[in-house]
Each structure stands twice: as C-alpha cells, then as structure tokens.
Amino acid sequence: MFEARLVQGSILKKVLDAIKELLNEASWDCADSGIQLQAMDNSHVSLVSLNLRAEGFDKYRCDRNLIMGMNLASMSTILKCAANDDIVTIKAQDNADTVTFMFESPSQEKVSDYEMKLMNLDQEHLGIPDTDYNCVIKLPSGEFARICRDLSQFGESIVIACTKEGVKFSAAGDIGTANIKLAQTSSVDKEDEAVDIEMQEPVTLTFACRYLNLFTKATALSPRVSLSMSPDVPLVVEYAIGEIGHIRYFLAPKIEDEDNA
C-alpha cells in the first residue's frame, strides 16, 4: 500500500506546473524515504530531477517500492480539480494499475476522488555524478525568471558569465544585444532578495533560452533559485520545494562554432 497526504496540496499543483511542459510522461519512484522522479525532457536536451522527502508529507506510507508511470497532462488535469487549499492524498495498492487522488476541503465538507490509469514506462535511471561547481549563484527566483524572459526577446541563447564582481546575463540577435549584470549583494535586509555568488574560478557558458524559460516555471515553488556552473558539465538550476524537497534541472551548455555543434 502506498499513501501520501499533503495538507498543502497546492505544492503538488506547482510541482506539476514546473515539469509538465518539459515532460509528457514520467515515472514516480516511491520508496519509504520519499518520492523521486527523474526524466529527460521530450527532446533529450535537459534532465529533470525531483525529490520529495517522506518526512515532508503529513502522512506517508510506502510498504514496498512502487514505480508509478503517469501521463503528466492527465495528472495535471486531475490536480486542476483540486482547490488551492485542498488537502491532497495520493493512494495506490502495491500492484495496482491505477492511482487515486483524493481532495478534501479544509472543512472536510467536500471530498472528491479521481482514479487515473498508470502506464508502464521504460525509463532508465541516469546516474547524476556529484560535481564540485566552479560557480554557484543564488538569486531571487522572480529575478531569474524576468531575466530569462527579457533576454529571450533578443536571441535564442543566453550567455551566463560569472566573475567575482558578479554575474552577467547576455543575449544577442537581430534587434541588437542585451546585457544584465547583477552584483553580489553585500548587505540585504531580506535574505530572499540577496544575490550570493560562490566562485572558485570564473565561468562563461551559453545556454538555450527556451529551456531556461521552461525551468522558470518552477518560480512559484521557491523565492530563491541556485545556478551551479562548471565548464563542460551541465548547468544545474535548483529550486527548493518548501520543507519537503527540491527540483533540479540539468542543461548542457551550447558548444559554439564547433563541428559537432
């Protein structure tokens, strides 16, 4: 038997909003430690890794490991039926081919349940190596979303350059060029508004705007985002999900002007 109950059910809606445009379907790996999801996006350019810890749920039970393959558009349709303040419970039997979503209003006066067919998905687990990154930039997630949105008007790629002075985002295209610089903030009353840069050595990498903009769909989950960069390894864009876990997006840098680009 698997059962996970979340009083703040709106978190699940936000999690789905953060992944459903990148992934059509995905396997939710449920174990006694929590729920994980890991999948390449539809065009095999980026990787999504999601972790929801068991202790972050208000009730969590997983008698044996369970892999639930779900169509994310269908799951999103069901979650749209939940009000933002509803309590959400996900239930499945050990060998079930369906999963049940139960929504309860805070007053318990309305309870609805939806059953969804599960899919058999053939998905391999990719080992994500632990990497020490040359630069880790932490900034307000709303600011990062705005930068990605604004710069995507200028070109298909965003260059992220990190130095000890700060971080520079730039794009170039038919209109012209755009540069946005953020300096490391020294004194900020509100921690959520700080720009924090940990740098071993400077890094400049180029990424596809389209994917960065899709990653910023997770902005609603967290006031902060962290960008971890090193040469020749994928960028990691990470958002915390409250007290319950995190979502990480991995995106390989663009290799410019080379034969294998």
TrEMBL record:
The record ties this protein, via HAMAP family, to: DNApol_clamp_arch (MF_00317)
Domain Proliferating cell nuclear antigen PCNA C-terminal residues, every copy: 127-254
Gene Ontology terms for molecular function: DNA binding; DNA polymerase processivity factor activity
Q: Which CDD domains match?
A: PCNA
Which is a Gene Ontology cellular component entry for this protein?
A: PCNA complex
Q: Where in the cell is it found?
A: Nucleus
Record's function text: This protein is an auxiliary protein of DNA polymerase delta and is involved in the control of eukaryotic DNA replication by increasing the polymerase's processivity during elongation of the leading strand.
Identification of the protein by name: DNA sliding clamp PCNA
Q: Write the record's keywords in alphabetical order, separated by commas.
A: DNA replication, DNA-binding, Nucleus
Q: Where is the Proliferating cell nuclear antigen PCNA N-terminal domain?
A: 1-125
SUPFAM superfamilies annotated for this entry?
A: DNA clamp
Say where the protein is mainly found. Answer: nucleus
Q: Which GO terms describe its biological process?
A: leading strand elongation; mismatch repair; regulation of DNA replication; response to hydrogen peroxide; response to methyl methanesulfonate; translesion synthesis
Similarity section: Belongs to the PCNA family.
Give the superkingdom in one word: Eukaryota
Read off the Pfam families from this record.
PCNA_C (PF02747), PCNA_N (PF00705)
Native organism is Rimicaris exoculata
The record describes its quaternary structure and partners as: Homotrimer. Forms a complex with activator 1 heteropentamer in the presence of ATP.
